[in-house]
């Protein structure tokens, strides 16, 4: 898995990094905790420059968050509730989780839009109530961009610094990256199987 992802990044450069981060936010096949450190590692080995990898990762993450913001804004609360009640199994979300995300946003507003970028699952969910509540688009993009670039940049820098120690971690980094992806898939399937209309 490690070689496959780094190979993709070597072939597609910044475009692949942005696309993977976009997908991670829309429907997480590979988590950012794996994508961006490998982008940094690839940069250290002469691939896409670190600054460009961070820029691409941040833009991809921002685009994914913006997608969910517009879903919330375009559908509105009632239609989204109907969608979750009808198709929540495949979204692995029930109405209680949707209402919890709304509660986070109503209590913390701009702060959760920013800090949510550092929390798995929340970084995807929180954009929806921001759109429903019609948070000003400029504010949403501003706080999301800051959080996204800090998160993407921190992970990429960690991967960049790891390159010097590659020989020491080479024997476990590939099975670890494979395990992360398998875990994401297994958790998704488990949530689909265990899903109930409401908690």
From TrEMBL:
Residues 30-160 form the VTT domain. Keywords: Cell membrane, Membrane, Transmembrane, Transmembrane helix. It is a multi-pass membrane protein. The chain crosses the membrane at residues 12-30, 50-71, 140-160, 172-193. InterPro entries: DedA_domain (IPR051311), VTT_dom (IPR032816). Its main location: membrane. GO terms for cellular component: plasma membrane. It is found in: Cell membrane. This is Membrane protein DedA, SNARE-associated domain. It comes from Paracoccus alcaliphilus.
């Amino acid at each position: 898995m490690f070689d496959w992802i780094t190979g993709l990044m070597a072939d597609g450069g910044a475009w692949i990094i942005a696309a993977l981060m976009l997908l991670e936010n829309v429907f997480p096949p590979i988590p950012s905790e794996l994508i961006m450190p490998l982008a940094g590692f690839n940069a250290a080995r002469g691939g896409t420059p670190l600054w460009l990898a961070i820029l691409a990762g941040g833009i991809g993450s921002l685009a994914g968050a913006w997608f969910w913001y517009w879903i919330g804004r375009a559908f509105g609360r009632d239609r989204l509730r109907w969608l979750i009640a009808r198709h929540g199994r495949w979204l692995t979300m029930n109405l209680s989780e949707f209402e919890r995300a709304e509660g986070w946003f109503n209590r913390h507003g701009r702060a959760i839009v920013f800090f949510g970028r550092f929390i798995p699952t929340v970084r995807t969910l929180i954009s929806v109530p921001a759109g429903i509540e019609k948070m000003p688009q400029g504010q949403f993009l501003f706080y999301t961009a800051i959080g996204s670039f800090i998160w993407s940049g921190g992970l990429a820098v960690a991967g960049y610094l790891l390159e010097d120690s590659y020989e020491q971690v080479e024997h476990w980094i590939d099975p670890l990256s494979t395990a992360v992806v398998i875990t994401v898939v297994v958790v998704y399937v488990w949530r689909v199987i265990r899903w109930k209309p409401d908690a």
